[in-house]
Amino acid sequence: MTNKNKILVRIIVLLAILNLTTIISILHHRYKDRKAAETVIVTGEGQTPLSGRFFIQEVGFDKEQMEQFRKINRKFKPKSNQIIWEMDSLKVLIFEELNKQNVDTARLQQLNLRFGELHAELKDETNKFYLKLKEISNTEQIDKLKNAFKPLFYQENVANRGRGGFGRQQQCYETNKLNQN
Fold first, then answer.
1. Which pTM does this prediction carry?
2. Is residue 55 in a domain?
């Protein structure tokens, strides 16, 4: 083989490796984007799911922001799901206690207090999650983020916003919204 042929073979091998690397990179990024799009954080009846797809399409996160979103979400999702699972378990225990022949009101109060503590933990986790998302967002994205999270914090046109009514309705709404993951 002549030097010219050796150089041509090396160039062809390098081009083949470059093409293969490009194809693998494209497939890898498509896979990551698909995984991000499938990750659902919060949904609610009549609401758009706050998923990876939502943050790409509606909020306008770029690839770097999506990578940061994934890191933030990997911390938030397991914590919030665990809290929601515990809250759901407590709801079952509360309902069972309410339906006993002889209701133990002291136990009922303990269960209710624990439920309230868990609700506060869930609110704290949601707040931290929201603040971290705000940190990686630009001004326009923050407005979109605000509108997306608004239903978790209050509902417009809720009747009975007077003493105590709004708070109880909101707690139920928020818990239900996050439970629909």
1. 0.59
2. yes
